């Protein structure tokens, strides 16, 4: 199953992922129970990811990644020095989960949110629902393919 993961680029961008050792990092800091449940119960090794830059102008899809480690406790939750510290979490009661992702492809430019709204196949995509703020979202195979097709059409991907 494909996914969409949101990150604010001034916090962690797709370029940061590209610079990470082995182009891989843990996806930490998720503090929403529904998103946590997706990380813990639904994301599987090899699942593909749309890497989405949020809270920026413009917001949009920056590239793709792959899940390379399934859900495990988010240790940043019990690290008092971490921005993601949660006093309710501990090693014995981890509460929060994370996965590891590896960069597949960084687009040459952002695929902006308004361009996604113009694609009929994406009309029911969770990202495009009014009020949708979830940072971890399931994506259908058809939606994932439509996003890549649009990125190809706009020349945002390496020639295939």
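^ Assign residues to that structure.
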């Amino acid at each position: 199953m494909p996914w969409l993961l949101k990150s604010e680029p001034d916090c962690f961008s797709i370029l940061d992922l590209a610079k990470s050792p082995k182009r891989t990092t843990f996806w930490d800091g998720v503090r929403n129970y529904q998103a946590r449940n997706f990380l813990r119960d639904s994301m599987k090794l090899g699942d593909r990811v749309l890497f989405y830059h949020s809270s920026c102008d413009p917001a949009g899809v920056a590239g793709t990644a792959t899940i390379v480690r399934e859900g495990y406790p988010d240790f940043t939750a019990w690290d008092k020095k971490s921005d993601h510290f949660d006093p309710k979490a501990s090693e014995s009661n981890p509460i929060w989960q994370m996965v590891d992702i590896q960069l597949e492809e960084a687009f040459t430019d952002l695929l902006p949110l308004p361009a996604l709204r113009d694609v009929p196949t994406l009309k029911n995509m969770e990202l495009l629902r009014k009020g949708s703020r979830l940072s971890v979202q399931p994506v259908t195979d058809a939606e994932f393919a439509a996003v890549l097709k649009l990125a190809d059409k706009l020349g945002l991907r390496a020639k295939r």
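Residues 63 and 106 are 4 Å apart (CA to CA).
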